Amino acid sequence: MSDRQPPRRRVPGPARPSGASGASGRSGSGSGRPGGPARSGTGKGTARKPAARRAPRAGQGSGRPAPRPRTPRPPARAARLRLGRPRPRLRLVGFALTLVMAVFVGRLLQLQAVDPQAYGAAAAASRSYSGVLTAERGPITDRNGVELASSVDAYDVTADPSMFTPERTGEKDAPLQAAQILAPILGAQAEELTAKLRRDDTRYVVLARRQTPQVWKQIRDLKNSFAEEFQRSGRRAGDPDRNSVLAGIFPGATSKRVYPGGDLAAGILGWVNADGKGAGGIEAQWDKKLAGEDGRISYAQAGGRQVPTAGSEEDPAVPGSGLELTIDRDIQWAAQNAISEQVAKSNAARGYVIVQDTASGEILALANAPGFDPNDLTRAAATSMGNAAVQDAYEPGSTAKVMSMAAVLEENAATPGTHVTVPNRLHRGDRLFQDDVDHPTWYLTLNGVLAKSSNIGTILAVEQLGRTQPEANKVLHSYLRKFGIGRPTGLGFPGETPGILAPPQDWSTSQQYTIPFGQGVSVNALQAASVYSTIANGGVRVAPTLVRGTHDGEAFTPAPEPEKTRVVSEKTAKTLALMLESVVDDEEGTGIKARIPGYRVAGKTGTANRVDPETGRYKGYTSSFAGFAPSDKPRVTVYCAIQDATKGSYFGGQICGPVYKQVMEFALKSLQVPPSGAKQARLPVTFTPED
Fold first, then answer.
1. What is residue 243's three-state secondary structure?
2. What is the pLDDT of residues 503-526, one digit of tens each?
3. Please, what is the Cα angle at 77 between 72 and 81, to 5 degrees?
4. Which one-letter DSSP state was computed for residue 442?
5. Which of 14, 30, 184, 328 has the most CB within a 10 Å radius?
6. How many CB atoms lie within 10 A of CB 358?
7. Contact at 8 Å (CB) between 363 and 546?
């Protein structure tokens, strides 16, 4: 036997998985340590198994343990991110949250504790609308209830400038765009509208006042069209505060003044300005009564529209009172038509006609030519606006002689039959006086002096009022004042002139002799008409009136009774009426063109030198005719005056006599005044020297 031991038998170990390195592979097996426990899966709580013995590798000496195999390193893992310490982070976040909460708490204290009312008011203002409810202006009618001025529905076009900002519209310059759209519709300048829409100090501006319903309908249609286009564009999505470029335009219900007769009685009615205030005539004089009292309305709004469920506060407007004038629309038309035709025919500067009820003092017509249409003031000439019949002061001429004759008769200085020898010329003071026509010596009665309208004869008659000229002047002045010269008529009309009548001690040498025949003294047309109404009314002057009363829709309130003043006796008034008949009836009278078949007519012509308002010197003439009818039972006074006629005749009897006749005939028929009875015997006009 040999000493060599037999080789040890090799016991095969378990097969290694493919790709594993030694027994340390960690693909779901042991921990990789030699002889270490093996784990199954995640292995928590699993029984450990003994590790298998490894056989020695071939080639190694027997009796020596096999060398430990080299375990390959696993693939390198990605480096782990080491996070910072959490405490500083938490402190920073906590500080930021504390700061934000402090801001909110501070703002809350400011709103709720410091000044809650101011902020509440500002918030309410941003979502509320407050506007004016315009009161409807009262109508103006004639004496028969026919409307001369009325009000119709209209709209004030208003805007909220805060709704035209880029933030609200998405447009860079929404005010300019809106202004360019609205300007041609409103007839306004785009620059003016743009300036209003750019205001930042208010949420309410008026772009145009008193526009017709048709104008607002056009704007409304455009507004709706822009709103639909804005919505289709998607710019409004998710933002209820956005709006189209015209969304900030709103209507304000109001009324507009209209005058159905156009230029009929425009000088009486006047007009209403853009602010709805009376700016002339009756509209201005009675503005407070006619206008009423405006109301107010306020409500919540969103997106420019009222919120129906939020309620509203309304202080209703009080409508204005209606006004009934003394004017008769038909007689006014006849007077206006007649004077307009004659002014045009005579190529005159202007003219006026007044028709007055002799007993009541009520004015039945007050017409001016040229006139104007208060519905369209853009075409009205500045010189034709207003009421020249009460605003013009002019020298009346021979129509004033009736006042001189009234003083002479009332003072018993003469009678209608008193003889007055009238030379061709009369030297008084520093002047040489003459009549309108050259004539030999006239032998006239006092009645004849009036019938022939002799200036010289009037001077001689007035001289009988006193022992001296100053004394006569003083007496004449007192009668002129009682007739209403040099003082207001009592009408109270805007712009009315009281005329010019100097105190007698201030009369110049020439005035002492010219005032008796109507030069050197100034009147308005209504004053001149009132003189003849006073005589027709038996010597009692009744202050002219233009308003009969007011009505509020339920009751009529008559105007106060006009002032009445006794000027001359009834006897003197009747005598003057007979003398005035001679002016029209006598073949040598100056007023034969004023005759009216079937009626007794009393009247007087006038032709005066006219003061040119531009130079202050005499230039041209004032032609006039004044009278009443029927002279036996006076009912109507008509006065006509034409200024500076430059074509044809300028004598009052020739150009104003026909106007007087035309208007008087119409008035008598319109008022159904019966014809006169038999004519009375004429008063003598002349005398023979032998008498």
1. coil
2. 999 999 999 999 999 999 999 999
3. 155
4. E
5. 328
6. 21
7. yes
